[in-house]
Amino acid sequence: MNEKIVIRKTGKQLLEQMDTTEVPQDGIAIWQLGQESLVIKKSGFIIYFDPYLSASPARSFAPPIQPEEIYNADYVIITHHHSDHLDPLTLKDLAIRSPQAMFICPAPHMERIVDAGIGRERIIPAQAGIKFELASGITVIPVACKHEQYITDADGNHFFLGYVIDFNGLVFYHAGDAIADQELEDALKPHQIEIACMPINGHDWRRLRNHIYGNMTFREAADMAAEIGAEMIIPMHYDMFASNTENPAYFVDYLLRYYPMLKFKMLAPGERMLYLTER
């Protein structure tokens, strides 16, 4: 047989899929782009998280879409300033192609967004614990996290943020880069998070010595998701760079051993998932 089976979409086909995907009122659509780059569609809005789409020989796979192709971004949310999360080249081209897009970033990194050629009027500086609204019924609460440690600027604004987004009762969490601790659990637990997207690549002294800052281990991510009462966990940050990966099979094994009722989904780059709320 010569028929080609397409298991995921890339480029313009992927963008068209985002546009045409109909999201039920009690659901959400999620696309994985690699590392911690996710796209979610809900309430008619398309939101990009940490889009890292620049070509690099260090990448283990090519970007599913090119920055200059992205015309459909309503919001772009940045968790912190490291280049695989705040990628100036991606942001510059995306901002031109999606002139309607607004950019959200930790307050200390606003100038980095400006330096990428994006006007200040398009940037929302985020501060830990200060809620703001994207549109009617969509609220965002930035949550401070430590990426090896908590870091703040002279005004007390955190460098590293995760984001809890409440879509009229369906609560989604993107952790950014984070290490699990009691402070993070205490900040997340009251929000009744349904979908938790968390890094699993871990941390150790060898990587830190080489300025590779750590994240939750696969155990810590699973434990944190269970402690905050999440319905589903989506692992991130295990697939991009050979020097900073993790085998997601260990994550799955740990979940099945200790949290067999906690749902999970591992997404391939370019894959779409439709999720219907359980609450």
Task: Kindly list the characteristics that best describe this protein.
single chain; 279 residues; alpha/beta; seven-stranded mixed beta sheet; 7 helices; 21% helix; disordered N terminus
Walkthrough of the structure:
There is one protein chain. The chain is α/β, with parallel strands linked by helices and 279 residues long. It has seven helices and 14 strands. It has helices at residues 11-20, 88-97, 110-115, 182-188, 205-209, 218-227, 248-258; strands spanning 27-34, 37-42, 45-49, 75-77, 102-106, 123-126, 132-135, 138-144, 161-167, 170-174, 195-199, 232-236, 263-264, 272-276. The strands form two sheets. The chain has a seven-stranded mixed beta sheet with strand order 6-5-4-3-2-1-14. Strands 7-8-9-10-11-12-13 form a seven-stranded mixed beta sheet. The longest helix has 11 residues, at 248-258. Mean pLDDT is 94; it is low at 1-6.
Short description:
The protein is of the alpha/beta class and 279 residues long. The chain is built from seven helices and 14 strands.
Determine the fraction of residues in helical runs and give it as a percent range. Answer: 10-25%
Strand order of the largest sheet: 6-5-4-3-2-1-14
Q: Estimate what percentage of residues fall within beta strands.
A: 25-35%
* Oligomeric description of these chains: single chain
Chart the SSEs and their pairings.
Layout: H1 11-20, E1 27-34, E2 37-42, E3 45-49, E4 75-77, H2 88-97, E5 102-106, H3 110-115, E6 123-126, E7 132-135, E8 138-144, E9 161-167, E10 170-174, H4 182-188, E11 195-199, H5 205-209, H6 218-227, E12 232-236, H7 248-258, E13 263-264, E14 272-276
Parallel strand pairs: 3-4, 4-5, 5-6, 10-11, 11-12, 12-13
Antiparallel strand pairs: 1-2, 1-14, 2-3, 7-8, 8-9, 9-10
